[in-house]
Structures are given as structure tokens and as C-alpha cells.
TrEMBL record:
Signal peptide as annotated in the record: none
Organism: Caryophanon latum
InterPro entries in the cross-refs: SAM-dependent_MTases_sf, TrmK
Pfam families the record matches: TrmK (PF04816)
Gene Ontology BP annotations: methylation
Stated name of the protein: SAM-dependent methyltransferase
Gene Ontology molecular function: any one: tRNA (adenine(22)-N1)-methyltransferase activity
Keyword Methyltransferase: yes
Sorted UniProt keywords: Methyltransferase, Transferase
Length: 231
């Protein structure tokens, strides 16, 4: 992977960036995504934000090597603190971390989202918490993609400003993904279903505490939903 050829995961994220966007890529690592978007003429300008010094320096080097220092600003900052009002960022990408961490980044500096109209989020795990956050904060899902790369399954969530109501099932499985039922989607939830069965069996043999009873009820609900989906 480099600034000209992204991984399938990042290419999917890039495919949802609107033409002419001003992009902030948070947790940018080597700044491959911002460099790619500017090279392709998709992004007009970009911010590459990194909280760790090593990746920040790698991103700076990459931007210089690509000759894009006039279009891409690399900042050492905690999450969305990398975005300044004068940037007029309209699109934020956050990829390659867990759902709870992505949500914590979004919640820590909400003022940085004032000019933002699109979020493209790629959680490695726990996409459910992002959907819950979106519903609470008036962001609406416009698309979702599930893909497998190098043996790992990823989801990409695309959000625009606006109200959204999701059922409990949609928060867990997605709004659009269950309609498409791709092979990767089936594979993910078959794997989850098998894991839930193992956990349920372990709890069955454990002490019947209140916590265990509640967990069994939750697992029973999830397994019932999954059985309907996988049918």
C-alpha cells in the first residue's frame, strides 16, 4: 500500500469522499489516504491528524515526498483537535480503529464538526456503538459497506447530518447491510452466532447470578435475530 495504491479497505473509504471535499483524516498514520485523495483530484485540500509523534513524522515525510505540502497540512493533535475553524473541513474520515475509540474521538471535540457535513467511519470492531452515537447526535446513515481483506472483516459507515431512527436490530447488524446480505455479511454474523452459542453454553454452566441471567437474555435475543438473518 502507498499513496497511489491504497488497501481495499481505504479505497472503499476514499470512494465515499465527495468531489472537491476538504478532508480531515484523523489517525492518518502515513497520510496515504489524504495523499491519494489529492492525487486523484477528489479532495481539494486535506488535514492529516496524528496523536502519536512517530506516525505524525511519517505522515509529514510522506506528504513532502509526494510534493503535496501546499495541499495537505499534517498536525500533531488529539483526534479532532487537529481541525481548526479556518480549515472549513466538510468531510472527516476515521479508519482502522475500534468503534468505541471512534465515538470517543467524535465526542471529545464536537466543536470541530461545525462545518462538517459527511463522516466516513471505518471501525475494525463494534460498529454498533457508532450507529448508536449517530442516532443520538442527528447523523443519518446514507450507506454501509462490509468487506474482507487479509482475513479480517471491516465495515465502512457513511453519515450525513440529519435525524435517524434505527431499531435495535439495525444498530447491531446495520441499516443497509442486511438488505444486501453479501457473502462477507453472512460470514461475519455466522461467526458471531457461533461465538454467542459458545458464550451461552459457558454461562449455562456458571453460577446463575443476575448478571449471567441478563447476559443469557441478551444472547438469546441476538441469536434469534441472527437466525432470522441467516435463514
Amino acid at each position: 500500500m502507498n499513496a497511489q495504491k491504497l488497501s481495499q479497505r481505504l479505497e472503499t473509504v476514499a470512494s465515499f469522499v465527495p468531489s472537491g471535499a476538504v478532508v480531515a483524516d484523523i489517525g492518518s498514520d502515513h497520510a496515504y489516504l489524504p495523499c491519494y485523495l489529492v492525487h486523484q483530484g477528489v479532495a481539494s485540500r486535506a488535514i492529516a491528524g496524528e496523536v502519536v509523534k512517530g506516525p505524525f513524522e511519517s505522515a509529514e515525510r510522506q506528504v513532502r515526498t509526494e510534493g503535496l505540502a501546499n495541499k495537505i497540512t499534517v498536525r500533531l493533535a488529539d483526534g479532532l483537535a487537529a481541525v481548526q475553524p479556518s480549515d472549513y473541513v466538510d468531510t472527516v474520515t476515521i479508519a482502522g480503529m475500534g468503534g468505541p475509540l471512534i465515538v470517543s474521538i467524535l465526542e471529545k471535540h464536537p466543536e470541530s464538526l461545525q462545518t462538517v457535513t459527511r463522516l466516513i467511519l471505518q471501525p475494525n470492531i463494534h460498529a454498533k456503538v457508532i450507529r448508536e452515537w449517530a442516532m443520538r447526535n442527528s447523523w443519518a446513515l446514507t450507506d454501509e459497506v462490509i468487506l474482507e481483506e487479509d482475513g479480517k472483516i471491516y465495515e465502512v459507515l457513511v453519515l450525513q447530518r440529519g435525524p435517524m431512527t434505527l431499531t435495535e436490530q439495525e444498530m447491531l447488524f446495520g441499516k443497509f447491510l442486511p438488505m444486501r446480505k453479501s457473502d462477507v455479511f453472512i460470514k461475519k454474523w455466522q461467526r458471531e452466532y457461533d461465538n454467542w452459542q459458545r458464550v451461552y453454553a459457558a454461562i449455562e454452566n456458571a453460577e446463575p447470578t443476575e448478571e449471567n441471567v441478563q447476559k443469557k437474555q441478551e444472547l438469546t435475543t441476538y441469536m434469534t435475530w441472527a437466525e432470522e438473518l441467516l435463514r
